[in-house]
Amino acid sequence: MEDTLNKPMIVGEGEPVAEMSKKDDKKPKAKLKKPSKGKRAFRPYPLTSFEDAFVLAEQIQKFAAGEKVRRLTLLKEMDKSPTSSSVQGLITNSGKYGITIGSYSAEHLELTQDGKVASNPSSTEKSRFQAKFKLAIEHVAPFKSLYEEYKGKKIPSHEVMKDFLQSVDSKIDNLTECIDLFIVNAKYLGLLQTIAGSEMIISMEQVLDEMKGEKTINGDQIEVKTSHSSETTNESVVTDLNVTCFYVAPIGEEGSEVRKHSDLFLNSIVEPALKGFELSVVRADKIGESGMITSQILDHLLKARLVIVDLSFHNPNVFYELAIRHASKLPIVQISRKSDLLPFDVDQVRTIEIDTTDIYSLVPKLETYRSEIATQVRHALANSGNANNPLTVFCPTFQVILPK
Question: Taking the model in full, what pTM does it have?
């Protein structure tokens, strides 16, 4: 009997059970932990760009004239393996965009109605764009939300866009990937444009207007005839001058050194310096015709709460507008490239000099320049109506009477 107890017991088909002493039998049995399943990523968006996924539609148009086609036949024509992960991803993401119908294991693949219009070379440019916009932006919920939030605006940092997406849907994973894909799709569609040195999301309506040939050249500015946001056009803008900072600067031809300089100063130095002042910055080329002083520009010079003047390049129009602002006796801040020696008359007023010798001189001091401008702005606004300039110093009784 004792020998029998000391032998291991056999249960079922050859599965040994370890012998236990009576002492061991009294111990509570350890509970086995079930392997935890990883949290499944929630990505309510395709994993490739629209341009990459759209290849499938173009191939269906090429080999099947846009009609329903057997999947294996299409892949054979494309010289692709039906079992490769890249092909499976292509078909899956095309379906997520709403371009095609049919999974990577389906017998047939076919284009959706929008997919047909978008990929059909016989469709008009306008209808192809509208269909692509629906598929690449409107069909994907987070992309649509980003477009609606930022159209007509400068693209903010990824961190700001992440905060916005989380406020829309807190369950979205990999926000950086989502934002990157949205930006790539917007660029592909022509919605991402560089305006005044900043990348902006323009509306689909504006892209359509440009397709219809309503983009005209007027002097050294581009004027788009559309009723949408003034931030993306050079049409006359109606602003509240009590909350406006008018930025007077040399502008130059599109793509010229002067234009790049002006855009850089505006977007990287002046606008960041004015954050917190609740002032809307407007540059001269946004409110009137190039090469002449319009009534709107005069209004801004004589009535805007603040004027910042960039004296770089010794532009004569800038000096002329500076003199008009001097006559108003209202707040003004002067800035200039360090390399430009200022004439005696304006050199008597404190001017913030910005060293643009090279990128290594400029970038490390950007925050310093912003702080200097912000400090000068505070001082100027605190002394509104009593600005210190050559005209107020030497002709203190000079007065401008504006028409009602």
Answer: 0.58
For residue 110, count CB atoms less than 10 angstroms from its CB and return exposed for 0-12, middle for 13-18, buried for 19 or more.
middle
CATH class of 236-394: alpha beta
Q: What is the dihedral of CA 68, 73, 74, 80, to 10 degrees?
A: 160
Fold agreement between 50-119 and 236-394: no
Q: Is 363 exposed, middle or buried (0-12, 13-18, 19+ CB in 10 A)?
A: exposed
Q: How confident is the model over 288-313, as pLDDT tens digits?
A: 555 556 788 999 999 999 999 999 99
- The dotted CATH code for 50-119 is 1.10.10.10
Per the CB < 8 A criterion, the answer to whether 333 and 308 are in contact is yes
How far apart are alpha carbons 404 and 400 in whole angstroms? 12
Residues whose CB falls within 8 Å of the CB of residue 264, separated by 6 or more in sequence, listed in order: 197
Determine the Cα–Cα distance for residues 290 and 253; give it in Å rounded to an integer. Answer: 11
Are 70 and 108 in contact by the 8 Å Cβ rule? The answer is: yes
Query: What backbone phi and psi angles, to 5 degrees, belong to 124?
Result: -70, 155
The DSSP secondary-structure symbol of 232 reads G
By CB atoms closer than 10 A (0-12, 13-18, 19+), residue 92 is middle
Note the pLDDT tens digit of each residue in 243-289: 999 999 999 888 899 999 999 999 999 999 998 898 999 998 877 55
**What are the sequence ranges of the domains in the chain?**
50-119, 125-217, 236-394
